[in-house]
Design brief:
The chain has about 120 residues and is mostly beta strands. The protein has one helix spanning about 5-15, and strands at about 25-30, 40-45, 50-55, 60, 60-70, 70-80, 85-95, 95-105, 110-115. It has an 8-stranded antiparallel barrel. Strand 7 (about 85-95) and strand 8 (about 95-105) form a beta hairpin. The chain is globular and about 55 Å long. The N and C termini lie far apart (about 55 Å).
Length: about 120
């Protein structure tokens, strides 16, 4: 068997991260200026039924879902600031989370990343 198809078959069968790899506390870097750090907490619980609960940016996660596919674990959920909804999608990338949040009522999309643990105080 040629080496390339064999290598591809092995890589396809490698297990990806499990949902529990995203569980827990995360420090979300929302900084727009590296000189002025702005970090908020996010707490995720990924349940066996595909739901996500917890909080993000001091708001309770609503209607959260997760999916493990194509070697990735990703979440999607909604939060609110009391004025309108914030729609968030994020995926685990090694030891960090890369995400984006859209707030239609505030006319912005925010791209962010998160590191494991609580924000430094």
């Amino acid at each position: 068997m040629p080496l390339l198809p064999l290598l591809a078959a092995v890589l396809i069968q490698l297990p990806g991260p499990t949902p529990d790899a995203m569980d827990g506390a995360w420090a979300v870097d929302l900084s727009t200026d590296p000189a002025q750090p702005y970090v908020k907490s996010m707490h995720l619980t990924l349940a066996a039924d595909g739901t996500v609960s917890g909080d993000f940016y001091d708001s309770t996660i609503e209607a959260g879902r997760w999916k493990a596919q194509n070697g990735r674990v990703c979440v999607s959920f909604r939060t609110s600031d009391g004025v309108g909804p914030y729609h968030t999608a994020a995926c685990l990338d090694g030891d960090r989370i890369d995400g984006q949040t859209w707030a239609e009522h505030r006319e912005f999309v925010f791209v962010w990343n998160a590191a494991r643990g609580e924000p430094a105080t």
